Every structure is written in structure tokens, then in C-alpha cells.
């Protein structure tokens, strides 16, 4: 999400005080739904089929619908392709109106209603209680009755509004803040669960609450874009701890934040997917996150079943780490270290998903630790070491599997910058996911940066590259 730091601080300060159908056919035993936030503004596809690969991945993970972020750089044509692609796959979508970019204003509810009207009867439109589902990013004060009049329909409205905002016309609220903060959306240590409690108390029911689930947040934009920002929220083991919080809370709706916001390192979708590049390739090149989506699958299934712990049907290890220790100096990076860097720990994280108890051994450079992991999901950590990263599982004396990560930890600056993104892998290894030159990537690199991301991992296809200037 393209936010200014001042705007985002203000946002959380407020918090502190496919065939047509009338309703989605849930695949879960309980009336719970999982969505993923999809940044439409970074894609410019030629047809509906170009969305199908990502939508199939999401459907296989148990995601029910995509929240299509609608900002100033999104056309009805692109929305149409996404709606049609979703119908072909058999997944649902809905519009999330982005009030931060200037396309929509709370003073013009007719424009919002007109967009809803254009898509509300599409086969892939998510409907809850027989109403088109609609959400937002920001936009408190919108006249919901006027929106519905322009749309020609009652809507099921869960906007990203804040504790204390007027609830008139809404069916609940969506909380965007899925990361630890200082309570004012600066880097800090207050957990997302504090926001959960504030929203549920204000709304009066967790059935009226859409909770965020996010794996990471790190961004490093400079003067080459209009939305300069340079900070990292304390992410570390967030993807594990947050899912366990969600299972205990059990809200009716959750939204993964995000599927493809590469610029903020918050993605769980593939980096190989066709998208435009505003310079984020410098910190997502060779940094797949697909292992986090794999890890989410049993959690999504447990959440939908109303369970408070997961059931493992396929054993695997999911691991992640930053590419460098936080203490290195990148003298050529005039942005400097991101705010919040000191809150990040120099650790390698391993989640064991096991059917029966086993021994997990992890090696990070010269550091090696073994952990007795129980059946189910468990989190393990070891100090980050420069060099090779290796992971293995044994049941008794028998090694089940082991692998060396495709990415080493180094004490130099990849692409010349401070990179606080995460590399995510699995054992057994998942299919390769590489940033490729698909004809739509155009990197904008600031003066003074010697950076043109190139293939570096052995898993890369020959000739894969991201273009740069």
C-alpha cells in the first residue's frame, strides 16, 4: 500500500484512541472466510487467463476470495479481467476501494456506488448474506446509504475504518494493522492482538470483525517515487505467532495482507507473477515467499473448521531469514537503515509441520542447533550465521529429508542497499519462484544506485532477469 509515513501514523493513532450464485458456496464447516489483499495497481494484464495461475494457487491454499485493491492506477478493464479470471478458476473476488490514492473521495459516494454497480452481478462477485461484499482501505466518513443508492443494491460492507469511527451502514470493520507497532503505527512491540481486542470490543462481536494476517513488512523507497518511505515493522516470527493468535480469536473474516504488495515485502504470492516494478526488485529479487503460503494451508483449514490447533497431513519444514545481519553497513545506500531495524533479530526461523514428533536440525553458517519438535506446528530459532543454511528432519535415527537453502546469508549489501526482506524456503523444496523479465517489469532506480537485479540463485531459469535503468 503506497502510504506516506505521516498518513500511516495518523491512521493507527485513531485506532489507539464459475456460475452465477447469490452467495459464495463456502468450502468450510464453519461460517468463516479467508481473503487475500491483491494490489491491482501493479498489474497490467492482457486478458482474464493471465490471472488464473495466481488464483489457482490461492484456491488450493483455501483462500475464498481476493480483495481487489482499487486505486487510481486501476482500470475497469483490469478489474473485468480479474473478475472473469476468478470465475474461470472458481474463486471469488470483491473490490477494496483505496481512498489513499485520490481516485475515490468520501465526498463522492456516487463514484463508489457506480463501480460497485458495474461488477456486483458478475459471477465471481463475493456475496455474503446475499449482498455484494465490499471493503476499503481507509475512507471513514463515507455515506454508505448514498453508495448503496448509486449501486442499486444493499451491500455487505466491511471497510478499513478505525475504532471510534461511525459504524452507520456498516456490517463490521476491517483492521489493516497486522504488525507489531508502538500503537501509532511506528515500529514497536505492541502485538496485533491489541488491535484485535480494541476492534472486537468496539464492534461488539468478533463476527463483525475482519482481522489482518501478515507475514512481514519492510520497505525502502527513496526520492525516485512520490511515496518515499523507509521502515520495517518487527516481523521476525510474526507469520507463526499471528496464525496461532487467529485460531484462538476465531473472527468470522480474516484477510491476508498481502498477496502481492512486493514494495512492502508483505507478499505471499509468487514473485514470478507479471507485475510492474517501481524499484522494489532491488529487495525482492531472489526472495520468494511461497513457503509462507504453504505454511498457511493447515492454518486456514483449522481456522475454517473452528479448531484452535492445526492438523498436519504433509510433513515439511518452512524456514526464513533476512539475507544479511542487521549490523552491516551499506555505505552506498543514501536512505540509510530502515526505521525499526533494531527491533529485528539476527535469527533464522524454522517452523516444523509434523505428523509425529521428530528432531529438527538447522545450520546457519557456523551455528548448528537441534530441536525436539512435537507433532503439529512448532517454531524454532537459531542465531544467524554468515554462510550456508541447511535444514533436516529425523524421526528417531532415520533422516526423513534435508536440504541446503539456495540462498546464503552474506555480510555484504545485495544490490548495494539495506535489505530487510525475508528469504523463505521449504524442505522438501517447493517449485522455483523467480523474478523474471516478462515484458511488463520496468525498474526505476535512483541516481547513484548501481543496481540492475540479475539472476543469482541456482534454481533460476536460464536468462531470467529483471530489467533496470
Account of the 3D structure:
With 469 residues, this protein is of the alpha/beta class. The protein folds into 2 domains: 5-305, Alpha-Beta Barrel (TIM Barrel), CATH 3.20.20.80; 316-427, Sandwich (Immunoglobulin-like), CATH 2.60.40. Helix content is 21%, strand content 23%. It is built from 9 helices and 19 strands. It has helices spanning 5-16, 52-61, 76-89, 109-119, 144-151, 192-203, 238-249, 281-284, 290-305, and strands at residues 33-39, 65-70, 92-98, 127-128, 131-137, 156-158, 173-174, 209-213, 218-221, 229-232, 253-256, 316-321, 347-354, 358-364, 367-373, 376-383, 389-395, 398-404, 423-427. Strands 1, 2, 3, 4, 5, 6, 7, 8 and 11 form a 9-stranded mixed sheet that branches. Strands 16-13-12-19 form a 4-stranded antiparallel sheet, with helices on one face. The chain has a 4-stranded antiparallel sheet with strand order 15-14-17-18, with no helix packed on it. Strand 1, helix 2 and strand 2 form a beta-alpha-beta unit. Helix 2 (52-61) crosses helix 3 (76-89) and helix 4 (109-119) crosses helix 5. The model is unreliable at 1-29, 438-443 and 458-469 (pLDDT under 50). Residues 1-18 form the signal peptide. This is Alpha-1,3-glucanase-like protein. Keywords: Signal.
Amino acid at each position: 500500500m503506497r502510504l506516506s509515513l505521516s498518513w500511516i501514523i495518523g491512521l493507527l493513532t485513531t485506532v489507539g484512541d464459475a456460475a452465477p450464485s447469490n452467495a459464495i458456496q463456502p468450502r468450510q464447516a464453519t461460517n468463516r472466510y479467508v481473503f487475500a489483499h491483491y494490489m491491482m495497481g501493479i498489474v497490467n494484464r492482457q486478458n482474464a487467463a493471465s490471472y488464473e495461475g495466481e488464483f489457482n494457487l490461492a484456491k488450493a491454499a483455501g483462500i475464498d476470495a481476493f480483495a481487489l485493491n482499487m486505486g487510481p492506477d486501476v482500470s475497469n478493464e483490469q478489474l473485468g479481467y480479474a473478475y472473469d479470471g476468478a470465475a474461470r478458476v472458481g474463486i471469488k473476488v470483491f473490490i477494496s476501494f483505496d481512498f489513499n490514492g485520490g481516485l475515490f473521495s468520501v465526498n463522492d459516494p456516487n463514484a463508489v456506488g457506480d463501480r460497485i454497480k458495474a461488477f456486483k452481478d458478475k459471477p465471481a462477485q463475493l456475496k455474503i448474506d446475499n449482498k455484494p461484499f465490499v471493503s476499503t482501505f481507509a475512507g471513514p466518513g463515507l455515506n454508505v446509504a448514498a453508495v448503496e443508492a448509486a449501486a442499486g443494491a444493499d451491500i455487505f460492507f466491511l471497510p478499513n475504518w478505525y475504532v471510534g469511527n461511525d459504524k452507520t451502514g456498516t456490517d463490521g470493520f476491517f483492521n489493516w494493522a497486522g504488525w507489531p507497532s508502538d500503537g501509532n503505527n511506528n515500529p514497536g512491540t505492541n502485538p496485533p492482538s491489541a488491535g484485535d481486542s480494541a476492534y472486537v470490543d468496539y464492534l461488539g462481536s468478533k463476527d463483525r470483525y475482519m482481522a489482518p494476517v501478515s507475514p512481514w513488512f519492510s520497505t525502502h523507497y527513496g526520492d525516485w517515487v512520490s511515496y518515499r518511505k523507509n521502515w520495517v515493522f518487527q516481523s521476525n516470527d510474526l507469520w507463526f505467532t499471528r496464525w496461532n493468535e487467529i485460531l484462538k480469536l476465531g473472527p468470522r473474516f480474516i484477510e491476508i495482507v498481502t498477496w502481492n504488495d512486493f514494495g512492502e515485502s508483505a507478499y505471499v504470492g509468487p514473485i514470478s507473477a507479471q507485475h510492474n516494478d517501481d524499484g522494489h526488485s532491488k529487495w525482492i529479487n531472489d526472495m520468494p515467499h511461497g513457503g509462507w503460503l504453504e505454511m498457511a494451508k493447515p492454518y486456514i483449514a483449522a481456522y475454517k473448521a473452528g479448531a484452535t490447533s492445526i492438523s498436519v497431513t504433509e510433513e515439511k519444514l518452512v524456514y526464513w531469514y533476512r539475507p544479511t545481519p542487521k549490523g552491516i553497513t551499506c555505505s552506498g545506500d543514501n536512505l540509510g537503515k530502515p526505521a525499526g531495524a533494531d527491533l529485528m533479530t539476527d535469527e533464522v526461523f524454522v517452523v516444523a509441520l509434523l505428523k509425529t514428533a521428530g528432531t529438527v536440525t538447522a545450520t546457519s553458517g557456523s551455528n548448528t542447533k537441534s530441536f525436539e519438535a512435537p507433532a503439529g506446528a512448532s517454531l524454532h530459532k537459531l542465531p544467524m550465521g554468515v554462510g550456508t543454511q541447511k535444514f533436516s528432519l529425523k524421526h528417531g535415527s532415520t533422516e526423513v529429508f534435508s536440504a541446503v537453502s539456495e540462498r546464503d546469508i552474506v555480510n555484504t549489501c545485495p544490490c548495494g542497499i539495506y535489505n530487510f526482506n525475508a528469504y523463505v524456503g521449504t524442505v522438501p523444496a517447493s517449485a522455483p519462484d523467480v523474478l523474471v523479465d516478462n515484458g511488463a517489469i520496468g525498474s526505476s532506480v535512483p541516481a547513484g544506485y548501481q543496481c540492475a537485479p540479475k539472476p543469482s540463485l541456482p534454481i533460476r531459469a536460464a536468462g531470467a532477469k529483471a530489467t533496470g535503468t
